[in-house]
Amino acid sequence: MPELPEVETIVRRLSTGVVGKKIAKVSVLREKSFRGSPVALEGRTILSVARRSKIIQFNLNSLDHLLVHLKMTGQLILENESGRVGGGHPTGDFTNNLPSSHTRVVLVFDDGSTLYFNDMRVFGWMKVVPHSTLANEYHDLAPDITDPQLTPSHFIKVFATRSTPIKQAVMNNAVVAGVGNIYAADALNLAKIDPHRPANSLQPQEVKRLFDSLKTVIELGIVHGGASIDTFVSLDGLTGRYQDIRRVYKREGLPCPNCQAPVVKVKLGGRGTFFCRECQV
DNA sequence: GAGAGTGTTGTAAC
DNA sequence: GGTTACAACACTCT
Question: Which nucleotide is nearest to A30 (CA to C1')?
Answer without folding.
Answer: C9
